[in-house]
Specification:
The protein is α+β, with helices and mostly antiparallel strands. It is built from five helices and eight strands, in the order E-E-H-H-E-E-E-H-E-H-E-E-H. This is Protein N-acetyltransferase, RimJ/RimL family.
């Protein structure tokens, strides 16, 4: 997986840029749109904690554990979220798309659909993945519905899989898309984006 390296992915709606420290202030503004850190079933940095969150992701990137991106809306150049390639298993190869959040005003606008189209296209067609995984909290119904709309299939639920910052236990819902399913998923995402454009 020599292509598992920082890369800029550009679409019609958004551009995914490799995360760097210079994005911190823009991310703090984006996360304030909807006060996303207040959702109890997610782990989204607060504006004040954004610098530490960026540093943590960059440290994990240097360790080869993840490739984090910011999501920039092409229409106005605003950063409207973040997403990440993580938990890569280079022997298969497979990876997870996770640590994703989108500013409230950018949700259901094509931003997430095109972000996933760009990430999945790169994962399957450049990196050569055989499967791409998505995980979310059992109680994050909005995220579960969004993943299902992508065309990913639910693999199962990992019970008491993690502990949230407030101490509660998390049941993690695991979804994935395989390389054989990718053409149909790609077609569905392109159709959704065409409807947003119309």
């Amino acid at each position: 997986m020599a292509d598992f390296a920082p890369v800029t992915l550009t679409g019609d709606v958004v551009t995914l840029e490799p995360l760097d420290r210079g994005h911190t202030d823009e991310l703090a503004v984006a996360v304030s749109d909807g006060r996303l850190w207040e959702l109890w079933y997610t782990s989204v940095p607060t504006p004040a904690g954004m610098a530490a969150g960026v540093e943590a992701r960059l440290t994990r990137q240097e360790a080869g554990e993840m490739l984090p991106f910011v999501v920039r809306r092409n229409a106005d150049g605003a950063v409207v979220g973040a997403t990440t390639y993580c938990h890569a298993d280079l022997a298969v190869p497979r990876l997870e798309v996770g640590y994703t959040w989108t500013a409230a005003s950018a949700q259901r606008t094509g931003v997430n659909a095109e972000s996933k189209l760009l990430l999945l296209t790169h994962a399957f067609e450049t990196v050569g993945c055989l499967a791409v995984e998505f995980r979310t909290h059992w109680h994050n119904r909005q995220s579960r519905a969004a993943i299902a709309r992508l065309g990913a299939k639910q693999d199962g639920v990992l019970r008491n899989h993690g502990r949230m910052p407030g101490g509660s236990l998390r049941d993690t819902v695991v979804f994935s898309t395989t390389d054989a399913e990718w053409p149909a998923v790609r077609g569905g995402l392109r159709h959704r984006l065409a409807r947003h454009a119309g």
